[in-house]
């Protein structure tokens, strides 16, 4: 008997994550400099870890409300209001999730029916398309280009919207490109969503990692609050990836629907991680700003370094990724990544892991030390020199 035949065809058709594949290979090799996984190299600040330890000493080890600790939801909604002047009811319009990945999955499953289409600007985070497929929906890629700084336009969206389109899924600052969207262009997209009566899922996990200008919260645009499911979390800006804490904010109907799935599949996020998230929001801004300033220094190092090697490179304005073109080498994205890892022990992620429009690029994370980044640039330089 072949047990593989019993697996859902939908699951079988979804390829494994291109990010994790190279991470796993790199983890088994000695001397590898990994620019593959988007994880801060900083340890969660001590005052945040201490709040977790204190909670354990106090015996806080039970379940919380499915929606999450009310104390945390109040801090989340207060922070969003103070930052973007968008108001949410912490009791009915906020849901604490196990990372933003769960929030994304819940949002998609809560709103999609089989056959519904979702517009997704690409390159994009690897789970966007997979989550839509697993929910029975149809992802509709919207290609963007380096020439337009990987920003999606209303003209591109208009060409692909159809009567079956239910939602638009965007993520800015963008993973993998580091692109951001100016407020004026987001406002035009908001009007597009209103015109076609679309729900907008806005993944803003990298909002605090914006280096030029000010991040625009999509839900804060006119008439977008109730139409938008706003996703964010603590992994990136607060160096809390392993704590697995994210959240979703939206109108009460969407949040209740998401919580219905959440309560049957996850129940609640870990209480100790929720306590840590409360501390992060109350007292973590100074440490967060220090980390962001360090990322900005690394960003400039990588931009200048990659360009000096002869690689065309869009200057990222947010997140902690850079997405250089490797077309000049004559290699495809996968071949470049595989040969670079084998020849120079530097791990990067092939650009086509983030959609077809990522072919000809690779993603490099600069959430690593200056020493590691300098070493990686030296090794990439030797590799590229042989092929240019």
TrEMBL record:
It comes from the Bacteria. GO terms for biological process: amino acid metabolic process. Its cofactor is pyridoxal 5'-phosphate. It holds the Pfam family Aminotran_1_2. The keyword Glycoprotein does not apply. Residues 31-380 form the Aminotransferase class I/classII large domain. GO terms for molecular function: pyridoxal phosphate binding; transaminase activity. Its EC number is 2.6.1.-. InterPro entries: Aminotransferase_I/II_large, AspAT/PAT-like, NHTrfase_class1_PyrdxlP-BS, PyrdxlP-dep_Trfase, PyrdxlP-dep_Trfase_major, PyrdxlP-dep_Trfase_small. Keywords: Aminotransferase, Pyridoxal phosphate, Transferase. Belongs to the class-I pyridoxal-phosphate-dependent aminotransferase family. This is Aminotransferase.
């Amino acid at each position: 008997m072949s047990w593989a035949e019993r697996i859902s065809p939908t699951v079988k058709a979804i390829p494994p994550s291109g990010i994790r594949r190279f991470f796993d290979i790199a983890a088994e090799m000695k001397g590898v400099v990994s620019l593959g996984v988007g994880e801060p190299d900083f340890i969660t600040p001590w005052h945040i870890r201490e709040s977790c330890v204190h909670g354990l000493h106090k015996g806080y080890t039970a379940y919380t409300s499915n929606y999450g600790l009310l104390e945390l939801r109040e801090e989340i909604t207060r922070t969003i209001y103070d930052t973007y002047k968008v108001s949410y009811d912490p009791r009915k319009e906020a849901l604490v999730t196990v990372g933003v990945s769960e929030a994304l999955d819940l949002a998609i499953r809560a709103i999609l029916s089989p056959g519904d289409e979702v517009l997704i600007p690409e390159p994009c985070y690897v789970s966007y398309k997979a989550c839509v497929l697993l929910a029975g929906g149809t992802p509709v890629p919207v290609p963007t280009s380096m020439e337009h700084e990987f920003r999606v336009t209303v003209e591109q969206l208009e060409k692909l919207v159809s009567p079956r389109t239910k939602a638009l899924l965007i993520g800015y600052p963008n993973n993998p490109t580091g692109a951001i969207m100016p407020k004026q262009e987001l406002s035009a997209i908001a009007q597009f969503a209103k015109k076609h009566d679309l729900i907008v899922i806005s993944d803003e996990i990298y909002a605090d990692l914006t280096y030029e200008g000010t991040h625009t919260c999509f839900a804060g645009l006119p008439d977008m609050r109730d139409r938008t499911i706003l996703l964010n979390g603590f992994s990136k800006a607060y160096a809390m990836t392993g704590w697995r804490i994210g959240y979703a904010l939206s109108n009460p109907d969407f949040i209740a629907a998401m919580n219905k799935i959440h309560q049957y599949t996850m129940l609640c996020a870990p209480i100790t991680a929720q306590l840590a998230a409360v501390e992060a929001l109350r007292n973590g801004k100074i440490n967060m700003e220090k980390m962001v300033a360090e990322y900005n220094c690394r960003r400039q190092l990588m931009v200048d370094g990659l360009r000096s090697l002869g690689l065309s490179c869009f200057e990222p304005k947010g997140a902690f990724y850079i997405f250089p073109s490797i077309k000049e080498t004559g290699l495809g994205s996968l071949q470049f990544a595989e040969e670079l890892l084998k020849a120079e022990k530097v791990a990067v992620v092939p650009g086509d892991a983030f959609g077809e429009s990522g072919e000809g690029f690779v993603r490099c994370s600069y959430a690593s030390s200056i020493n590691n980044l300098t070493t990686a640039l030296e090794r990439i330089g030797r590799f590229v020199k042989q092929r240019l």
